[in-house]
Amino acid sequence: MPGSFASEKESRQEDSSNERTLRHEMWRRFDGDDWDAFDQLPPSVRQRVTMHAYDAWSVNVLILWRHYKGIYGRNTRAERALIRYLDYCERLERQAFASCYTETHGQPLPHDAAQVGVLRE
Length: 121
Fold this sequence. Notes:
With 121 residues, this protein is mostly helical. 62% of the residues lie in helices and 0% in strands. The chain has helices spanning 8-14, 23-26, 34-39, 43-51, 58-72, 76-105, 110-113.
């Protein structure tokens, strides 16, 4: 797992957001208007983005949507493929966070220890 959690002071200096995960080490966040990007997504993808365990970064999702649309066309197959990819990314993020938490605290993430899934609704 690359790196470790930044101290609270370092996090505040680097970024004024409430982001406290390893996502910045795993992914690149593209600039843009998140609300405008969200509005351009199909309804099924918008619904999945709102249920993502973390902020799904709508600009990134829009870039992915354009890619999947180019491969499959604008149809439900493209939407399902993108949603599956978002599910995969979420699993990777949860695994990375849980691994770092276990390393830092010497015990499993409480959510994992309780063997519960992500609360969606």
